[in-house]
Amino acid sequence: xxxxxxxxxxxxxxxxxxxxxxxxxxxxxxxxxxxxxxxxxxxxxxxxxxxxxxxxxxxxxxxxxxxxxxxxxxxxxxxxxxxxxxxxxxxxxxxxxxxxxxxxxxxxxxxxxxxxxxxxxxxxxxxxxxxxxxxxxxxxxxxxxxxxxxxxxxxxxxxxxxxxxxxxxxxxxxxxxxxxxxxxxxxxxxxxxxxxxxxxxxxxxxxxxxxxxxxxxxxxxxxxxxxxxxxxxxxxxxxxxxxxxxxxxxxxxxxxxxxxxxxxxxxxxxxxxxxxxxxxxxxxxxxxxxxxxxxxxxxxxxxxxxxxxxxxxxxxxxxxxxxxxxxxxxxxxxxxxxxxxxxxxxxxxxxxxxxxxxxxxxxxxxxxxxxxxxxxxxxxxxxxxxxxxxxxxxxxxxxxxxxxxxxxxxxxxxxxxx
Amino acid sequence: xxxxxxxxxxxxxxxxxxxxxxxxxxxxxxxxxxxxxxxxxxxxxxxxxxxxxxxxxxxxxxxxxxxxxxxxxxxxxxxxxxxxxxxxxxxxxxxxxxxxxxxxxxxxxxxxxxxxxxxxxxxxxxxx
Lengths: 418, 128
Description:
The complex is a heterodimer of chains A (418) and B (128).
Chain A lengths: L2 H24 L2 H22 L5 H22 L6 H5 L5 H7 L2 H13 L8 H13 L3 H7 L4 H18 L8 H23 L3 H7 L1 H16 L4 H14 L25 H15 L6 H14 L8 H14 L3 H15 L1 H8 L10 H13 L3 H14 L3 H21 L1
Chain B lengths: L10 H4 L4 H20 L2 E2 L2 E4 L6 E4 L6 E4 L20 H14 L4 E4 L2 E5 L2 E2 L1 H5 L1
Antiparallel strand pairs in B: 1-7, 2-6, 3-4, 3-5
């Protein structure tokens, strides 16, 4: 790896910790970001000559803090610029700082930084954009690309979101245990949003959004390292790894969705799968079931099945039943119905989803599944209606194309019968 | 003499490598491995999963204490390691507990492997 790439990777890795600590010092997000930026520029000059510091985050915090303090002074007193050498000639700054900062500080710094992106007034897309900008350090250009909007529009969105959180007041006190747990839950949800924004993208936008699942997993890994005994964070990490392990086999060359049953399982990423399974193993020991763990366990059932027909659908049905208890939602019931259709047949599954019609009347997957179940039951006309409704609700061209395949099959069957 | 080479690096950075970066590093490493392997000098090599997948069994108490995460104390030093095939973490911890009974004190960090290459040590290398 080239020197520049190494430094770049180290800066990215240190960013959440460093910006989090700088935010605690300055209590101002813009100043903290500026200070980190400044420190990064100095690192690019200094590290190639002096070698990388032992603790890049501590180095960046110290240098960033000095640079920002200096900037504030300069602004307020309009003094002559100090000699560049006096600031940048910091031989071994990380030692004293590392001694003063213990792990607990870092932990809450990073959590706070993630938490401020989760403000409930911010819509999901803005939470994601903020996290990518502030915590991950993606450029506005990269984020704009991921959201398929212009750079100026995204810049404006981020500025507005920042103004909103600044107005809301950032919580600087060290959180108590209950508050910390609440923050963790909010942050986990936000990280999963980042993941899904990328993961659920259609093939056309997949390249633009490819960075999002990777970023989400990086953030979850960071969180898990700071909170190593949280089974739900293990579950979240496992869930994302298990889903992402299938990312290269989910679309065909024409960009159409390949269903789980039809995917080439030899292309699933075994490394991600084994890491996901290892994390589930760890989480289970805590005997505190939570929604991420159960969803990860469901994903693991698919990952463990060598062929689609090896899938233990009865166990998946049980897991969905557990998830219905932990996090009741019509979507969970809809997913459970898929398992039920495999275990108890399409009739039972249809009975299960029929009451959801009111709440899922605008949901693509509801009509997709309803159509598929009706088709299995040989109720072609009703199936066609459901599929047509699904197409009208499709979010991506790939979704619509997939349903059209069903309609084609249906048309073929009808022709055969006639 | 057989030597162990213990690999340390910043896992945040290493686990953020793209597949291309990872492949590039691995292929550069392979160029170093290949002649050693050919000469019968290259023993087993291992790539571990990240520390987030680790569980630590502290065997300085009885019964031993099982904690999430890697072994982080600096009072003790790394003295050796095993590679043992286990059905799952629970089974691995059982083995660790048996080992702990036989050899109390310190800790075992139990970390799943990401990659295992058995290597190709020549018999005379193992006899030395």
